[in-house]
Amino acid sequence: MPNTPEVSSLTLNRLSIYLRSLRQLEEERVATISSQELAHRFHLSATQIRKDLAQFGEFGIRGVGYDVAQLALRLSRLLGLERRHAIVICGIGNLGRALAEYWGFNHGPFAVVAGVDQDPRKIGKRVGTFVIAAPDEIERLVRETGAEIGVLTVPPSAARESYLALVDAGIRAVLNFTLQRLEPRPGVRVKNVDLRINLEELAFHLGG
Amino acid sequence: MPNTPEVSSLTLNRLSIYLRSLRQLEEERVATISSQELAHRFHLSATQIRKDLAQFGEFGIRGVGYDVAQLALRLSRLLGLERRHAIVICGIGNLGRALAEYWGFNHGPFAVVAGVDQDPRKIGKRVGTFVIAAPDEIERLVRETGAEIGVLTVPPSAARESYLALVDAGIRAVLNFTLQRLEPRPGVRVKNVDLRINLEELAFHLGG
User: Fold this and answer.
1) From B97, which residue of chain A is nearest by alpha-carbon distance?
2) CATH fold label, A85-196
3) What is the arithmetic mean of pLDDT over B120-130?
4) What is the model's pTM?
5) Is A157 on the interface with B (CB under 8 A)?
6) Is the ipTM of this complex over 0.85?
7) A201–chain B Cβ distance below 8 A for any pair
8) Domain-wise residue ranges, chain B
């Protein structure tokens, strides 16, 4: 991991949101913006913006605000988005297939370049931009495609085995949709995605 | 919306995480826990836990900590999880189908009870626990099933129309996977889900 000061998930997710807001401002040809305006426009907190950015150096100019294009570029570099990150998907069920073709996973620095499934009826079939391979091909696929991110969309019972296969193949970043906890491995970053948390947020607003 | 003090998404998502941690402690038959222990055990912040809970009343006992079962129940009530919330899905492509059968959407208070798609070849086919209906059936489906949450997994070009159909049918909480911004409607809560943010977090750790 070349670039790992301890920055929390929450901070990183806010930086992503700032970057998206700045991209929208760039499209609208806004050249500079203050933290207050940025906060107001995108329903963020100005104090939080200043605090988050302060962790990574000096960004704004007092009394003028941020240079939109420059801040977008610096955040993009900081987030590691100025170079390609190829993705391999383990498990081409409905969710794996949806992610293989998902705009957000095939845009900018990201591209889904390979996928494996243990179902012999699926192997050899085309999904998105690749042909589904057998699980024992993972190491070759990672080597040949330079994939760095593994996505786990296998059934929960296969989560651990697929995870270890990804790690053995040299994958150092794993997006885990299986709801199974995976054991930490040195140098490997696992991000667990639990889509239910979004429903719980909506449930709060619907009332008890 | 019966229950809407202004609580941020981030706070609500943390409450969900606390609740999951408490459920795990319940399974391990832990009866009481301090905010420090809770924080340490689940990689959270003790200060943040105390601050978040303080917004909603008095939970812990000084010197003893939290009663695990009681705090879990109170958080569950607070989040509106002590009663059923039925879900209708608009758009039964790969993602819609995956979510219809997703454990997290069919567990505890949540159940996917209906789904619509405009493809005549899909209408009448069974997915999860329901049969796919035509989009013009939404109002009847919502009325008959008591669905309160709508999930948008249609193509981006159909997002607005499907959203308005959900709102017209009486849906007040929408989970939007389309990456299209939806116009606010009075009394309707929209939660936009952008799965790419998880990749951006991993990209940071992979370095630029």
Assistant:
1) A94
2) Rossmann fold (3.40.50)
3) 96
4) 0.88
5) no
6) yes
7) yes
8) 9-78, 85-196
